[in-house]
Structures are given as structure tokens and as C-alpha cells.
Amino acid sequence: MLWMLALICSLPVTNRAQAEKTEPENSKFPMTQSPTYNLEKAEKLARELRGKGIRDKAVLAAIARIPREAFVDEALAEMAYLDRPLPIAEGQTISQPYTVAMQTELLQLEPGDRVLEIGTGGGYQAAVLCEMGVELYSIERYEELYQTARETLNRLGYFPKLYHGDGYEGLPREASFDKILITAAPETIPPKLKEQLRVGGLMVLPLGGRERQQMTVVKRVSETRYSTSTHGDYIFVPMKKGTE
Ligand code: SAH
Predict the structure, then answer these.
(1) Is the pLDDT of residue 82 over 80?
(2) Is residue 108 classed as helix, strand or coil in its secondary structure?
(3) Does residue 71 line the site of ligand 1, with CB under 6 A?
(4) At 222, which CATH number?
(5) Does 80 have pLDDT greater than 50?
(6) Distance from the CA of 26 to the center of ligand 1, in angstroms?
(7) FRET label pair with 36: which of 83, 177, 196, 216, CA 20 to 30 Å apart?
(8) What is the DSSP-derived secondary structure letter of residue 238?
């Protein structure tokens, strides 16, 4: 099972055992949370991620405000605030919080950015992006996951534009995007997504073979030129063609 493999995935972890407290920040994009969610656990998770090297305060503040348990099966609620990937329907995973935070940090988001996410999954990453005040478009290839993510996100007060479709196609009618985030692993950079990135925009994706991928940032430098940088090894579920 890939999500179990991901548990042993080597990640850059700092020695800072005592994470500093995340600064509280007023939500500019309020959500209608159920009072039954215990957000102290989400705050503790954000502090843990800060201890592991995540620096972007807006990313940490978003994680501290989101009840991750809403995105997993009730039976897994106890594990929802651990820094671990967890299984969701269709054999897919909800990414490890560290990975969500790292990918989001690498996007260098500005409020109002037009962001395209490939692989909505359960919707947790989408919630982080919504909390950060971006205009989010997100595509999922499994209809069941698309439906569930929409219900969960709307219940929590998030209303991104969600699509059931093949992320390899992107959203040509909505292009271009300031940022593109791929949360499943393609073997090469999807050409149509490169075209839908604006000049100056960034794409963050896990790139490489089936076994292991390198976190990669692609910058569109000009109409025809792209530069890339890599940021450590990860294990993601594969980005698959078509829809189900
Ligand atoms: N963003 C999610 C990660 C889910 S795992 C989170 O917050 O946890 C990756 C997701 O990408 C899976 O749900 C998988 O079904 C989806 N996926 C894989 N290939 C895809 C494609 N071609 N188009 C859209 N989604 C895809």
C-alpha cells in the first residue's frame, strides 16, 4: 500500500525538537466550522510542521485552522492530526501534512492567485489553499472522490471550483494560472499544464518514476523557456490518464 510506503519516505527533518508556537492570525476567509472540531490538535500539528522546517506563516496558520479529521473516515479520526498520509476511497491517499505544507510553501502564494490543483483527492490540500485566499480550481479523476470532496469542503465553508476530469488536460478555458500544483506523480511534466501556466508562474509537482519522485518546481521564464529546481524525495500515488 502506497500510503504505508510513504510513512518510511525519508524527509528533511530539522533537529528543532521544540517548535515555536504558530502566531495566531485572524482569518480573512472565515469558515463555518462545526464547534465539535477540536482545533487545538490542528494547532499542535502546525507547530510540529514548523519544527520540521516549514517556514511560511500563512501555510502554518491555514493548517492550524483546518479540522483534518473531516477529510478522513470516522474510524481514522484519531489519526487525523498525525503527520502521516491516510487512506481515502478508491485506493487513494490524503497526503501527509508535511508534504501538503511543503508543496504549498514552494508555490509562494499571494492572496488572489489563480491556482490549479490536479488531484483533489479528499480535499484537504484544497482547504489549505482556500484558507490562503487564492482563487482555486481543482480537478479529480474519480467521480466519487470529486463528490465527497465537494461535500466536505462546502460543509466547512470552502467553495473552490471543483471538476471531475483528467488533470492531464488542465482547464484550457480558465487558463492561464499563476500557480499549478500537482498532487499525484506524472512521469514527465504534462505538456498541456506547462502551456496553461502564465509567464512568471510556478508549477510544483512530484516528478520521476513509480517508486519515488523528486519534488520539482517549474518556473515559466518566458513564452518558450522553463527552469526547474528540485526539493527532495517523496512518494506519491501515480497520476493516471482518463477518468473513472
Ligand atoms: N490533494 C490531495 C492528494 C490526493 S492523492 C490531498 O489533499 O490529500 C492524489 C489524487 O490525484 C488522487 O485522488 C488521484 O485520484 C488523483 N489523480 C491521479 N491522476 C489524476 C489525473 N490525471 N487527474 C486528476 N486527478 C488525478
Answers:
(1) yes
(2) coil
(3) no
(4) 3.40.50.150
(5) yes
(6) 30
(7) 83
(8) B
How much is the pLDDT for 4?
A: 39
Q: Which three cell numbers stand for residue 1?
A: 500500500
Using a pLDDT cut of 70, give the percent of the chain over it: 85
Helix (H) or strand (E) holding 153: helix 143-155
Cβ of 183 closer than 6 Å to ligand 1, yes or no, is yes
Residue 14 covered by a domain: no
Closest by CA position to 154, among listed 31, 53, 2: 31
The C-alpha cell at 205 is 509537482
Structural contact between residues 127 and 158, judged by C-beta atoms closer than 8 angstroms: yes
Report the domain count for the chain. Answer: 1
- Residue 209: the pLDDT is 84
Residue 20 lies in a domain: no
> Active site includes 222?
no
pLDDT higher than threshold 70 for residue 10: no
State the average pLDDT over residues 70-75: 95
pLDDT in tens, 203-228: 999 999 888 999 999 999 999 999 99
